[in-house]
Design a protein that fits this description.
It contains two helices and 20 strands. The chain has about 350 residues and is mainly beta. Strands 5, 10, 12, 13, 14, 16, 17, 19 and 20 form a nine-stranded antiparallel β-sheet that branches. Strands 4, 6, 7, 8, 9, 11, 15 and 18 form an eight-stranded antiparallel β-sheet that branches. Strand 6 and strand 7 form a beta hairpin. The longest helix is centred in the N-terminal third of the chain and has 16 residues. The structure holds 2-acetamido-2-deoxy-beta-D-glucopyranose (NAG) (2 copies).
Length: about 350
Amino acid sequence: MINILFFVCCLVTRSASQRVDGMHNKLQEDFELERQLKIINKPPVKSIQRKPSNQKTIENPNLRNSPSKPKFGLEKPCPKGTVPIRRTTKNNLVQAKSLLDNQILAQQDPTYRTHVAGVFVVPFGNFNGVNGTSSVWQPIVEKDQSSAALTWVQNGPINALNEIAAGWHVAPQLYNGDVGTHLFAQWTVDTFQNTGCYNVLCSGYIQTDHSYYLCGRLLKTSEHNNIIEFQVGITQDPDTKSWWLNVENTNIGYFPTELFTNLALYAKQVGWGGRTTHAGIPSPPMGSGVFPDMDTRGASYFRWVSFKNGTRYYDTPDYLTKAFTDNDDCYRAKFYGYEKNNIGSILQFGGLGGKCDN
Ligand SMILES: *[C@@H]1O[C@H](CO)[C@@H](O)[C@H](O)[C@H]1NC(C)=O
Ligand SMILES: *[C@@H]1O[C@H](CO)[C@@H](O)[C@H](O)[C@H]1NC(C)=O
């Protein structure tokens, strides 16, 4: 029941940006959901039923198949001129809203919590891109929880934070209870209060690639002796100022610059790490569930971490980074700097979770 999801191929359209407004009563909310569904579910060109097994999956970059093959479990590529979009149901929207609410309520309501651990680049200039290669895991997450590994670009004050984040996560609320690992992105222009959403649950993100797509499930995740990685970056188009989502060295879609206020011209903060959300106790594992341990087969990592200032790429020197966590007993992050043997600049993050809310 949980594994069958339906995808539709949609015409690539440049729909006007539309923000998802916060709603105050149930009726209005219902009406708003119907409206959003109409916007999101464009008429399908062709329906694809995703089967739960026998699918190609993303591989270690070194062993990768030809780049034209879809990597996230989509069985057939979409017809030319179309892109895969997951069909959204009303229930998806309700659940996604509650997941987003977890993040917002985290500040106000002690029953919903978000925890973070990661590394950010000290804000010293204007940033136009962030990039990294992450090891992919499948942390065990209950139905009211989520656990993500993500890279982000941000700008703005605490109440009007603009953010785009992307990476992999386990978030059963978003995928009909599926506890697999999915490619995801999210954005906001007001610290997740009223705008933005996960994936394509509101209009904003525009998919352009035929094979990689948001929501796509990564059917293979790391085990101790077999690390699966994927590259994810968010880079600003120098001409249009829109932010491209780059996965496995392919621009798969973009966030139009018009969506943003503070991020319209550049970012002031970029970083990499983990984020968990949960209602009640305990808090789920982050990453592979272990603290940074200097072992690429142990704690989850981002390597080849770099960021862009103007036209220059920085290979993230130590002195420009800062590791952070909101609860050292639960989750930690550490930047190791440049490691030889073709590893690049690497950081690790994660932890087992548990009772993390004190
Ligand atoms: C991201 O990093 C990878 C690995 O270093 C590199 O191959 C790729 O070109 C970078 N992509 C972008 C958009 O900077
Ligand atoms: C790059 O960073 C410098 C600070 O070192 C900043 O003054 C400058 O505006 C940035 N360049 C661009 C094009 O964002």
